[in-house]
Structures are given as C-alpha cells and as structure tokens.
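Lecture notes, part 5. Sequence design as translation. It can be helpful to think of inverse folding as translation between two languages: the language of shapes and the language of residues. The source text, in structure tokens, appears below.
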C-alpha cells in the first residue's frame, strides 16, 4: 500500500512541473516487494521499470515503507525514461544517483512545501560536496544531487 501511494504521489508532484509526456509519465512502474536475492539484502534498487525491495536483516528498516527511498528509486526510472537510449552517454552511476536524489527532493518540496520533518537534514542531497569523485556511485551522486538542490533552492527563494 505504501509503495502504491508513493508512486501516485510522485506522479502527482511531477505532473504540474511538466512531466506529462504519455511515453514518460503514463507508462506504469512495477514494484517487486520481496526480492529474495541474498546478495541484494538490506537494499532497494531500480531495474527495467521496476523498483525492487529485498529481504531485510532484523535491525534494518524495510525500505518499501520509506517514501524518500521509494521516490529515489523511482527517480532512476524517471531518468531512464528521459535519457532513453542516450543513457549510456552519461556518467550513469553518479549522475543517476544524484538525479534520483533530486527527483525525490522535487516530490518532497511539492508535498511538504518547505516544512521540516524528521530526517530531512540527513538526506544525501543536503551537501556541499563539489566534485570530489570517489568512483563510488552514491558518493559521486552527492555532487550532482547537491548541485541540482542548490538550483532548486535558488528557484524556490526567487518565488
């Protein structure tokens, strides 16, 4: 139920921002809520129009219950749809992670209207990393996501 709600909230937030192309915005996403692959344990990931949630250790949170994680994984799908066949031309690791964080941030801003909430300051997108690339996709993504968030914050401040 949580994943269904979060997917709809993502589209509801992006539609007014111009994400209306039928090939991009109306093609459904799928969700695999129990991927038993032991190598992916304690994780969520996106692949081929599907967000996947794995099995979790007793002390780990079920990421299918976390909207930010769901929106981040869907952000990979949004980027895939926008880039199409040109996806291999980009830094698909770091750029994809940063843009997935940015899509999640767009949904947060569209639904929270700048209000604070528990965990907001802990998001990876809140950083001043610059381009200290480590070849680890999540680290590299901080530079892309942080830059896009700076643009978003400036645009919000202008309004």
């Amino acid at each position: 139920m949580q994943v269904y709600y979060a997917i709809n909230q993502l589209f509801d937030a992006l539609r007014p921002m111009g994400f209306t192309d039928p090939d991009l915005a109306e093609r459904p996403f799928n969700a695999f809520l129990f991927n038993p692959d032991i190598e992916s344990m304690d994780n969520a990931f996106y692949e081929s129009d599907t967000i996947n949630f794995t099995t979790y250790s007793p002390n780990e949170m079920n990421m299918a219950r976390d909207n930010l994680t769901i929106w981040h994984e869907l952000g990979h799908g949004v980027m895939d749809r926008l880039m199409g066949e040109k996806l291999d031309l980009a830094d698909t690791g770091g750029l994809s992670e940063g843009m997935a964080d940015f899509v999640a941030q767009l949904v947060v801003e569209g639904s929270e209207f700048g209000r604070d909430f528990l965990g907001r300051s802990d998001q990876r997108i809140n950083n001043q990393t610059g381009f200290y690339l480590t070849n680890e996709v999540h680290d590299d993504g901080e530079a892309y996501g942080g830059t896009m968030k700076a643009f978003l914050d400036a645009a919000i401040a202008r309004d």
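The translated text above is only one of many valid answers, since several sequences can fold into similar shapes. The first strand starts at residue 30 and ends at 35.
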